[in-house]
Amino acid sequence: MSKIAIVTGGAKGIGYGSTKRLLDDGATVIMFDVDEAGLSKAQGELASHGERISGVKVDISSDTQVKAAIESVGNKYGHIDYVVNCAGIQTYGTAVETSEDTWDKTFDVNVKSMYLTAKYAIPFMRKAKGGSIVNISSVQSLANQKGVVAYAASKGAINSLTRAIAIDHAAEQIRCNAILPASVDTPMLRASARAFSSTRSEEDILQEWGSSHPIGRMATIHEIGELVGFLCSDKASFITGSSYVIDGGLMTQVPVILPD
């Protein structure tokens, strides 16, 4: 029987890469995304998977919308096996520069959404006698650039939320893990590059960001999707409460470079 998976932010970026991997593994995937046009485009590109792919427009920071969307999926299929939380936003600013509205929106989209999907999906995972939740965090939860105070704090909160959910539901065979990527070539990252490209090209900035990783490039969405697929699968059945860094060696690098 096909596994039932919800992927938030599934229409693009890491969510799209995760959706493709889960479809390749035989799962039925329901993409949640606020971008209705993006959902239509993704469904068209994945149409060869037939009824195993669908999309729902959802504001994942809204309790009522998340509850209704998850209950619709759970009631249709009788259970839910996987939730992959990829939806998120990038915000910039120091503590002094960040408005309360920006802080609240960052936490609503990046953190509250993951609490909401767990709250409403776990009862349907119980019907399946287990399940897997994968939360997309960031290496910014461990070490920070300047000027990303709300974003970095939200990603640290995701790591703590992941551990709390894992320990609360381990005895029910419901696992919860986090993935902490470094730079990934996504529409969100490219939008950030454009925001800083007043004197340089977007591609120049992306090349610089990629070259800062010891492996010499950014990750692809499909590389993150591979780890998502593993953590959802029974191959990871003894793994819960963990945070997986996938960063091309970025966090192992001392920033002082010795001369040749």
Automatic annotation (TrEMBL):
<dbReference type="InterPro" id="IPR036291">
    <property type="entry name" value="NAD(P)-bd_dom_sf"/>
</dbReference>
<keyword id="KW-0560">Oxidoreductase</keyword>
<dbReference type="InterPro" id="IPR051122">
    <property type="entry name" value="SDR_DHRS6-like"/>
</dbReference>
<dbReference type="InterPro" id="IPR002347">
    <property type="entry name" value="SDR_fam"/>
</dbReference>
<comment type="similarity">
    <text>Belongs to the short-chain dehydrogenases/reductases (SDR) family.</text>
</comment>
<dbReference type="GO" id="GO:0016491">
    <property type="term" value="F:oxidoreductase activity"/>
</dbReference>
<dbReference type="InterPro" id="IPR020904">
    <property type="entry name" value="Sc_DH/Rdtase_CS"/>
</dbReference>
<dbReference type="Pfam" id="PF13561">
    <property type="entry name" value="adh_short_C2"/>
</dbReference>
<protein>
    <submittedName>
        <fullName>Unannotated protein</fullName>
    </submittedName>
</protein>
